[in-house]
Specification:
By secondary structure, the protein is an alpha+beta fold. It is 25% helix and 33% strand.
Amino acid sequence: MAYAAAHVVPLRIADQTTPRVQAVLRWHEGSPPRDRLAADPTLRHMERLDRDLYRGATQLAWFRIDELPNLHLRFTWDGELLHVDGDYYHRLSADPRRDWLKRVLFSRRLPALRRRRFTTLLYYLLYYPAFWWLERHQDLHPIHAAGVEIGNTVVVLAGPSGVGKSTLVTGLAATPVAQLLSDTFLLQRGTTVQRCRSRCCSTPGASAGSGPAQTCCVASITATASIVMASISPTIG
């Protein structure tokens, strides 16, 4: 609980400009239910948009999410507060026998594996819903990019993870007239770029960039200036 509180403290600011998201995670050890309709009969009354996506009047149920097929999420919007209910099924293998064997072999590493997975789950439970709130209510669009303010110009470096965004903006920020805005996410509205409030919350022993290092609170520094966009792609060969 202390670890979770360290991540979410910056989001617990009670004012009208702060994203209002209430998230609950239920952690399960083992495989998810094979029959989701039997496990959750309310899905029968929702429209099935895709194999793993259901929509109701004020709800959205999402299964097998991206790279986390063992995470199930339900979003409910009541007009003021976004409720996020998550069920995560922690397993080391889809095969029950292999899962049991890996738990025995890696029993000493299980606590560390759980902490690393929890860090990733925070993105889906809090950070991404906060981005949605900011887009819906304040027209602030999240960009997975690094940014540095140099004089009256903001240099924005966009690209996939691992291509060197953080390295480049850190080098640019070393100049006397520069100010680092973010090395992970930026919020953009027209020619206004706003940084997320930084908070390093990586797990013990992890690198600085391995955990969620940004929380999106609107009470942060805003730089209104021209935007220089640069897209970075991995070098092949």
